[in-house]
Amino acid sequence: MLISFASTWLKRSQAWIIGSKASFSSSPVWCLLTNRKILKVTGPDRMALLQLVLSNDVLLLNEHRSLYSLMLNKQGRIMYDVLLFQDEDGKSTLVECDADVHADVLAFILKYRMRKTVDVVADNSRSVYVYYLPNQAHIQEPPINLPDGTLIAKDPRSKYLGFRIITESSLISTIAAGCVALKEYSLALGEGSKDFIPGTCFPHETNARQFKGLNFNKGCYIGQELTARIEYAGVVRKRFLPLLFHVDQLSKLCTVQYNSQVICEQNRLVGKFKNAAIHYAIALLNVEKAVQSKQLFLVAEKGNRLPCALHLPIWWSEKNEQFSIRRCLCN
Residue ranges of the domains in the chain? Predict the structure, then answer.
């Protein structure tokens, strides 16, 4: 029965994609991410400090060029999401974060500095670009000569997100940032304070484990105790999942407020809306209720109900040989 529900949702999602004007491009695209900011962390104790405040093992930067991680509060809820890069000089670590809260991220790091020899500053000279192929996973590095001092690394969260490029130079941008969010939402990936307000979501609810943002082999860090407890309990009932809307609903979708209700055909609460990009939205949903519902609705202004389809992200089918509620609820 559950497999048939999944099949129904996938067919419905495909039909709605065909009917939408916002289709994925088949050519590689560049995008300047004006909503992202770079912080530069320097000093001999920088790795020890970052290890204390981040959910991932920063020592992995010695093996990889990039790393996805979260900053949690003491209750184990997400404060900020970041991407880490080892600078070309090997003497500093770059932290990419949401531009709207970059000062808060900086203050959060320095809050735990104590006697460590570390300095954190906003690097206003650098910009963040993304280079990716919207409808495919495998993409080569940009076939152009990038300026000296440019840092390029694969997005550590998913092979479908291409490359992150950090540079002091101005590169060509061929696509709007909203289309990058469209790609992220289709993968059930939230990013920045507009997708999860600081202190409201647990890492497992935002699929941080699937996007390699958690490490359970490192030592203690802020928020580690509750995160480990959820991991070893093995059940996550609510998750970020994508919702797909028909093109006719796009004008109304723009007016929907954060945490608006998502309900089923029986008017029962299924979850809460978080954000939208073109015809995709991301919502924190009760997985079992969402999948077993025949129809979902987003409650907009004045009680208007916008019909939408649950769209299972591509990594779901890659990690599960067949659809299973139990596998989804477990990590």
Answer: 29-178, 234-329
Report residue 175's pLDDT band, with 50, 70 and 90 as the boundaries. low
Question: How far, in Å, CA of 50 to CA of 64, rounded?
Answer: 16
Confidence check: pLDDT of 325 > 60: no
Cβ-based neighbour number of residue 22 at 10 Å: 14
Q: Indicate the fold that domain 29-178 takes in CATH.
A: Alpha-Beta Plaits (3.30.70)
Residues in the chain: 331
CATH of domain 234-329: 2.40.30.110
Per DSSP (E only), the strands in the chain are: 29-32, 36-42, 66-72, 78-86, 92-98, 119-122, 127-132, 151-154, 163-167, 238-244, 261-264, 269-277, 280-286, 296-299, 305-310
CA distances from 168 to 151, 161, 304 (A): 10, 22, 46
pLDDT digits 0-9 by tens, 238-267: 999 999 999 888 888 888 999 999 999 999
Instruction: Check: CB of residue 223 under 8 Å from CB of residue 55.
Output: yes
Q: Tell me the average pLDDT across 232-241.
A: 91
CA proximity to 84, closest of 46, 138, 141:
46
Helix (H), strand (E) at residue 287: helix 287-292
- Are 298 and 243 in contact by the 8 Å Cβ rule? The answer is yes
Angle formed by the axes of helices 102-111 and 46-53, to 10°? 110
